[in-house]
Amino acid sequence: MVIGRAVGKPSSEWRLHAGIYQRHEQADAVVHTHSDNCVAVSCHLKPLPGFHYLAGEFGGNDVPCVPYSTFGTQQLADDAAAALTDRSACLLGKHGMISRGKDISAALDLAHRLEIMCWQFILTRHLGEPELLSEEEWVEFHERMEKVSYGQFI
Q: I want to staple 96 with a disulfide (CB 3.0 to 4.6 A). Which of 34, 131, 134, 150 is the partner?
């Protein structure tokens, strides 16, 4: 079966995918996109902050953003793999996003969720700087997630 445009030629981002598989044995699927809202937020080179509790579904209180590196480089692969140590997705500075999951469905779901979260963040910024969840609220959120077994994508 042929998928994509190039037959037998790997993507320029093969290092990015390979680095995540090598560093995270539990990752059985990786999704990388240049989706509009993830790109927009990633261009600020800052994490997606914990403005909404669903940002916690990616494994922490925010979604990290790795520094800009040229596409296809080992530096980008290393930075992304490191950012995914405690997270299931991250923004790639001035580039897009990447997610990892237990299967392709989980990784795609995370990519879609991150795109929606970035869009919601952009919308909230139209009203000003959103208030972030407090440390106490994050503790309660993560305890609740563990109890009900939601968001266990890491």
A: 34
3-state secondary structure of 49: coil
Edge-to-edge, what's the strand order for the sheet holding 29-33?
Answer: 29-33, 96-101, 89-92, 65-66
Which of 13, 131, 135, 140 does the annotation list as catalytic?
13
E-assigned strands of the chain?
Answer: 29-33, 65-66, 89-92, 96-101
Task: Give the pLDDT confidence of 81-136 residue by residue, as tens digits.
Answer: 999 999 999 999 999 999 999 999 999 999 999 999 999 999 999 999 999 999 99
Judge contact between 87 and 64, C-beta under 8 A: yes
Active site residue 57: no
What CATH topology corresponds to 14-147? L-fuculose-1-phosphate Aldolase (3.40.225)
